[in-house]
Design goal:
heterodimer; A: 743 residues; alpha+beta; Penicillin-binding protein 1b fold; Penicillin binding protein transpeptidase fold; five-stranded mixed beta sheet; disordered C terminus; B: 196 residues; mainly alpha; Serine Threonine Protein Phosphatase 5, Tetratricopeptide repeat; two-stranded parallel sheet; 53% helix; 3% strand; disordered N terminus
Chain lengths: 743, 196
């Protein structure tokens, strides 16, 4: 008997050692997980820096600065346009930015009188970057981890009042509660009551089993005791808050109060009202049974029960109790999975990380991810989408996407994936692959203009209907948008007015394979149709892909890969990877310059001119509208000196709209542009280009003052040989005649 | 080894180009603050107002319908002809500071650090040929001649009619091409430099 007892004890001890190992490793794995931190780009301050006072304030607040005396680190003082800022310093991947006190003036949306009042002197200083989100790579999903000291006090107190009143006193199990529960269970002839402590519930959550057998419960009780031996109460409570199961979204489990707060209310845990906290606490008992979206009545009575318990425990005073009980559930219509302020942007960061990172790199925790997000441009983009869309016709059906990049660096500054920018759902900027329509035309004409002996900006092209007959007998009859025909138009006008017939004619003349090659050179990686309809943009691309294509046009023929990440370091600031600026010349800068000319004309006289309803006339721009059949897609892609942006507006069901690129997408684009101070577009004339005054109708050089005169760039040698006077009298140009003579 | 000797004069040429080209903000491009208008030269009078009105301004696009497409009322008149210019932006002082920092890092053999500084400079002065030539130099030091060649080409596309910049660029390109074994390309670039 004694022996059997001793053997039993040894076995039990061995079993305990095993359970101890299991439960501690699980606990450690959860407890010490540090999320990767994602940062916006740091704001650079220097004399001449482009920033408005309003966006400087917003930027400071995003980085956690408070208005104050400007002397204590992390405070700033503002007096009109004059700022004094005390930075906290920051360890950047390329070195430390010291703590400094800065003085500067913002006037005309520019920094001036920049000086360092205290700290190492510098002509240019980076503010600490704003934290814009966390990525929890080990889970391959977002978790919103909370710390005990940052959650509202009512949450742990209310939780204890309802689930485990003696949490701080027991040693992991509460025999009295268990006895009470057992009694109830025996009476009922089955398990109807839990009696588990929070520690036991946590252990149960670790192993994700709802099965309730006696052996299981015994193991849980043992593990709970072991857990309590290793860790203090606060650690256990905090892990509980982050671990408890609170719902299901498809295949995805909602764990922890932080994520549940986002999922049910779309709000941060720290901002929840008592009745919202009470609902979450109540749901611990049965997240699916008390699901407030599916069973609002059950959820409400459960919530009110929790509120009563809170009041009974002295956590809520009577008048407050009544008030809280009278509130509606306040659950958001759409579930949100993230606390990230910029869900679409962070989504793209995720994809770039997944593309370039091995899983084991992502598993290393506490990464620091330095992104290229510009909070001011992101703010402008979100405002542009959410304020413009409702003003368009049949707004309810419409969706939108907007991508903004820095023109010369390829850095993605802002991304909006839908009309509700805060909503983490279908990311249209990345995933909506739509026919590009007339956005393809600059590439058709670029392919033509790369052959200056055949095409110049003033080459007359036929604007006349025609019919193509395919081998299988099908017919294709392209038409202009306005169904008109103009006989003949100069090439630059065909592009700036976006006529279809000339584009198809030029494309067929230059050859579809050559146009396809141009598109591939500029970054199209998906298969491109061989049918002539590709010349009118049957190629489907997502807005970010269009931004990538247009980057090459905006930079004079240099492909610049789009980036959302500058650098990733580990927690100790050791660089893991760097995403450097790359440029790759893919087209003759001279030919691209000619296309840029026509794209500027688009904004001045062509399909993009309504941009200047919103934008100041001095802001020189280049761009292109795109509209697909029945207005299913409204596109606008264009650039200033600093920014390149692509806007798309359409319906998720691909239905028709009454919109065009100019009436649907351009207003969004212009609205964003109007909120950012920036430089106008004025390309440097590349090698091998000359400007001449020409009379396109006469196909001849002419005098500057003549009525039909237009200053047009030509690839050297392709300018007209003839010249005309203001009256249209053609004569051979003397200079070129002499040049011919002596060559 | 060939590489080291063959690019010996490029930094010198650039140092010359850099001297005296530090300029005011914008470096030549036309800056348009929100709402347009010339940036005021004098600092704003001290105010204690809330964040600027125009920064919080909500744009009010009209509702356009297809039937209105041919604009009835003309928008604000933009400049009449497409814009271009003869030369790129001059370097603002902050960019010059970063380039000097990059030079120091290069001297210490830290080409990755130099590239970091130069990328900061490039974000501030993305239309200055010098920044790209410097990036090319840093990539030569980091033994990435392919990238170096591309950055030189990009710099050349912004050199415009500035013949000393053009000359620096073509000579740099010739050195890089020779180091890559592209003799014909190198002498072509040298011819271009000589023709200036």
């Amino acid at each position: 008997m004694f022996r059997a007892g001793a053997l039993g004890l040894v076995l039990l001890a061995g079993w305990m050692v095993y359970l101890d190992a299991v439960v501690t490793s699980r606990f450690e794995g959860r407890r010490f997980e540090v999320p990767s931190r994602v940062y916006a780009r740091p704001l650079e301050l220097y004399d001449g820096a482009s920033v408005s006072a309003g966006s400087l304030v917003r930027e400071l607040e995003l980085s956690g600065y408070r208005p104050g005396d400007g002397v204590r680190a992390g405070t700033y003082q503002r007096n009109g346009g004059r700022f004094v800022i005390s930075t906290r310093g920051f360890l950047f991947p390329d070195g430390e930015e010291a703590r400094r006190r800065l003085s500067l003036v913002v006037s005309g949306d520019r920094v001036s009188s920049f000086s360092v009042l205290a700290g190492p002197s510098a002509a240019i200083v980076r503010l600490e970057p704003a934290r814009i989100g966390g990525i929890y790579p080990a889970h391959r999903e977002d978790r919103v981890l909370v710390q005990l000291e940052e959650v509202p006090e009512l949450l742990p107190l209310g939780l204890m009042a309802v689930e485990d009143r003696r949490f701080y006193d027991h040693f992991g199990v509460a025999p009295l509660s268990i006895a009470r529960a057992m009694l109830a269970n025996i009476k009922a002839g089955g398990i109807v009551q839990g009696g588990s402590t929070l520690t036991q519930q946590l252990v149960k959550n670790f192993f994700l089993s709802r099965e309730q057998t006696l052996v299981r419960k015994g193991n849980e009780a043992l593990m709970s005791i072991l857990l309590e031996l290793h860790y203090d109460k606060d650690d256990i409570l905090e892990t509980y808050l982050n671990e408890v199961y609170l719902g299901q979204a498809g295949t995805r489990s909602i764990h922890g109060f932080g994520l549940a707060s986002q999922f049910y209310f779309g709000e941060s845990l720290k901002d929840l009202a008592p009745h919202q906290l009470a609902l979450l606490i109540g749901m611990v008992k049965g997240p699916s049974y008390y699901n407030p979206r599916r069973h609002p009545e059950r959820a409400t009575s459960r919530r009110n029960l929790v509120l009563d318990e809170m009041a009974e425990a002295g956590l809520l005073a009577e008048p407050e109790l009544a008030k809280q009980k009278s509130r509606p559930l306040g659950v958001s219509a759409k579930p949100s999975f993230t606390e990230n302020r910029y869900p679409a942007y962070i989504d793209l960061v995720h994809r770039h990380l997944a593309r370039d990172y091995q899983q084991e790199d992502l598993q290393s925790e506490g990464l620091r991810i330095f992104t290229t997000l510009d909070p001011a441009v992101q703010h402008a983009s979100e405002t542009a989408v959410s304020k413009t869309l409702p003003k368009l016709a049949n707004a309810d059906e419409l969706e939108a996407a907007l991508v903004v990049t820095a023109k010369d660096t390829g850095e993605v500054l802002a991304l909006v994936g839908g009309k509700d920018p805060q909503f983490a759902g279908f990311n249209r900027a990345v995933d909506a692959h739509r026919p590009m329509g007339s956005l393809i035309k600059p590439f058709v004409y670029l392919t033509a203009l790369e052959q200056p002996d055949r095409y110049t900006l003033i080459t007359p092209v036929k604007d006349q209907a025609f019919t193509l007959e395919f081998d299988d007998g099908r017919l294709w009859q392209p038409k202009n948008f306005d169904k008109e025909e103009r006989g003949e138009v100069p090439l630059h006008l065909a592009l700036s007015k976006s006529y279809n017939l000339p584009a198809v004619r030029v494309g067929l003349d230059i050859g579809i394979p050559n146009v396809q090659q141009t598109l591939r050179d500029f970054g199209v990686t998906t298969p491109i149709s061989d049918y002539p309809s590709m010349l009118l943009g049957s190629v489907s691309l997502a807005p970010v892909d269009v931004a990538q294509l247009y980057q090459g046009l905006a930079t004079g023929g240099f492909n610049t890969p789009l980036r959302t990440i500058r650098e990733v370091t580990d927690a100790d600031n050791e660089p893991l990877s760097r995403y450097n600026l790359k440029v790759d010349q893919v087209a003759d800068p001279a030919a691209v310059h000619l296309v840029q000319y026509a794209m500027q004309e688009t904004m001045q006289e062509g399909t993009g001119r309504s941009a200047y309803y919103t934008l100041p006339g001095q802001l020189t721009l280049a761009g292109k509208t795109g509209t697909t059949d029945d207005g299913r897609d409204a596109w606008f892609a264009g650039f200033s000196g600093d920014l390149l942006a692509v806007a798309w507006v359409g319906r998720d069901d691909n239905g028709p709209t009454v919109l065009t690129g100019a009436s649907g997408a351009l207003p969004v684009w212009s609205s964003m542009m109007s909120q950012i101070p920036q430089h106008g577009f004025s390309p440097v004339m590349p090698d091998g280009v000359q400007y001449h005054w020409v009379d396109a109708e006469a196909q001849a050089l002419t005098g500057e003052g003549c009525a039909n005169a237009r200053l047009v760039p030509f690839i050297t040698g392709s300018e007209p040989v003839m010249s005309t006077d203001c009256n249209g009298n053609i004569g051979r140009q003397i200079r070129s005649w002499f040049e011919g003579l002596f060559q | 080894m060939i590489k080291v000797t063959s690019i010996r004069f490029a930094p010198l040429a650039l140092a010359l180009a850099l001297a005296g080209c530090a300029s005011g903000p914008g470096g030549g491009s036309i800056y348009v603050p929100m709402g347009g208008g010339e940036p005021s030269r004098a600092p704003e009078p001290p105010r204690t107002a809330e964040p600027e009105q125009n920064s919080e301004r909500e744009p009010e696009p009209r509702v356009w319908r297809k039937s209105e497409e041919p604009a009835v009322s003309e928008p604000e008149q933009p400049s009449r002809t497409p814009s271009y210019r003869e030369s790129g932006d001059a370097l603002p002082a902050a960019a010059v500071t970063l380039i000097r920092d990059a030079d120091q890092r290069l001297q210490q053999g830290d080409s990755a650090g130099a590239i970091s500084s130069l990328e900061r400079a490039q974000r501030i002065a993305p239309r200055s040929a010098e920044v790209y030539f410097k990036l090319a130099e840093a990539y030569v030091a980091g033994d990435n001649l392919g990238a170096a060649e591309q950055f030189t080409l990009k710099g050349l596309s912004l050199a415009g009619n500035n013949s000393s910049l053009q000359r620096s660029g073509w000579l740099l390109l010739a050195d890089i091409r020779r180091a890559r074994g592209n003799v014909a390309g190198a002498s072509q670039a040298e011819d271009r430099a000589r023709a200036l």
